[in-house]
Amino acid sequence: MKFLLRLCLLLSFVTLSACVSPSQPDLSRLYQSSHTNQSEHHYAPIVFIHGVFGARLNHSVSQQEVWPGSLTDILFSPYDDLALKINPATLSPLPSQYEATTINDAAAGQDFYGNIIQTLTQAGGYELTTAGTPIQDSQRRLYLLVYDWRQDNVKTVQKLDQLIEQIRRDHHQPNLKVNIVAHSMGGLIARYYTRYGTTDVLDNNNFKTNSQGAQKIHKMIVIGTPNLGSVSSLHEFIQGFKVGLNRIPSEVLATMPSAFQLFPHPIRNYMITLNGQALDRDIFDVKIWKAFQWSIFDPVVQQRIKDSFNNPQASTRYLNTLERYFEKHLERARRFVWSLSIKVPAVKIQEVKNKLIVFGGDCELTPSRLLIEEVAGISVLRLSPEDIHSPLKNINYHKLMLEPGDGRVTKPSLFARDTLDPTVARHKYSFFPMSYSILLCESHDQLTGNINFQNNLLNILLSRD
Predict the structure, then answer these.
(1) Strands (E), 184-336
(2) What pLDDT is stored for residue 109 in this prediction?
(3) Which of 189, 192, 248, 356 sits between 20 and 30 A of 257, alpha carbons compared?
């Protein structure tokens, strides 16, 4: 009798488990009917924009891949060769010997963008197409903006415009609009483009919008984009970006203009003291970096730079150039983040909006603030609650220093808000004309591979409106 009872309970458990087991949407079946109706309705071409580190870099002559390279490279290389060389006269990067070749679909067994490209082409019926290919049919088209993610984002914006103009020529439609699907930093590039087109507005504080890019975009979908910057990027910039068992050194990252442009927006309270009070410090002021000895102003980093030169005079000249370069690109980054948040004139709001749809994650605690602790009269940076040497009682440092997000971008930054509480009015200097948002339980690098994201994305792209 007891055996039969246990057996019944077991069968009930198995049956219940089967009923509640998670299932996934069948994307091919959900969207297969649309494959046969392409001639009945025109679908805007898609331009997919990857994020930072999202394209493979090859040597322009030998075509040897330098990023991400082999599995050995991923595990052990510090990637010193990724540093951009600097023109000491203009304090701009010199032309690089490396070029972006293809999107980073996967590396070391981890998917990056391969899954989303496969979904768009197979379930969505989009044909991956190279710009410059004349289009004579109604086939849906997918284009990839493959760019050198180390460079200034405004330089990439100009590449985006060149790609869209070529797509228009290929389709023989001078007024054709495209759909933008952009991950992470790619969303910042797209948003700048909608406001300013190809105009570089970062040389001064006069951010005059023209909406030239907005006129060429139908829908803009951004995924995991740090719309008010990323404290995680600040962590990595200061201590080096971890890859495998090593780190890309801070002095290498400091040569990449785009890295500065991911820093937290000034309207965000990103730095606190041990007692939890906001610390008024300007992350875009080079004096702060010198005072705290961060990045290239760290004596250890400076010694490492000196050791890389055989000539002491040459190392001194380079350090001087790098410090001036650092200050210049800090200021450009300040203007970059402000250029994306200032309010657009009322007559242009509808053009900029372009059905801005935001995807992101909110299930993973994500760095949101730095903490400065005084130790023996010295201000010491703490990147996580566990690093604090003498925490005060009754202060929840985890809540202060971490907020829900995707591990790299907090939910407030995703929505360009200065606070987590959605009932609090948006900051007066944060203009973000979002149509709607969809939140997922997913990490930053895996957002585009998430099946629920892909399902919603196809529904958005293929809906007639």
Answers:
(1) 217-223, 241-243, 246-248, 271-273
(2) 84
(3) 356
**What value does the mean pLDDT of the chain take?**
91
Q: Domain limits of the chain?
A: 26-285+323-465
- Residue 267 CA to its chain's centroid (Å): 19
Per-residue confidence band for 17, with pLDDT thresholds at 50, 70 and 90 = very low
Three-state secondary structure call for residue 181: strand
Which residue stretches of 171-285 are H helix? 185-196, 231-239, 250-253, 257-260
* DSSP single-letter state for residue 39: G
What is the rounded distance in angstroms from the CA atom of residue 390 to the CA atom of residue 441? 34
- How confident is residue 138, by pLDDT bands cut at 50, 70 and 90? confident
Opening angle at CA 341, ends 338 and 346, nearest 5: 125
Q: What is the pLDDT of residues 201-211, one digit of tens each?
A: 999 999 998 88
* E strand spans, 104-147: 106-107, 110-111, 127-128, 141-145
* Of the candidate ranges 28-32, 186-190, 365-369, 430-434, the one whose mean pLDDT is the lowest: 28-32
Tell me how many degrees the CA angle 396-398-399 measures, rounded to the nearest 5: 70
d(CA 280, CA 264): 14
Query: What are the b/e assignments for 391-411, b being 16+ CB within 10 Å?
Result: beeeeebeeebbbbbbbbbbb
What token pair was written down for 219? 């829908």
Predicted confidence (pLDDT) per residue in 328-381, tens digit = 999 999 999 999 999 887 545 555 556 899 999 999 999 999 999 999 888 999
Checking if the pLDDT of 23 tops 90, the result is: no
pLDDT of 108 above 90: no
List % helix, strand, coil for the chain (3-state, nearest 5).
Answer: 40, 20, 40
Q: 71: Cβ–Cβ under 8 A, 6 or more apart, which residues?
A: 108
Tokens matching residue 136: 């004579």
CATH: 3.40.50, 2.60.40, 1.25.10, 3.40.720. Which one for 26-285+323-465?
Answer: 3.40.50
Q: Which residues contact 52 (CB under 8 A, 6 or more apart)?
A: 149, 184, 185, 258, 259, 262
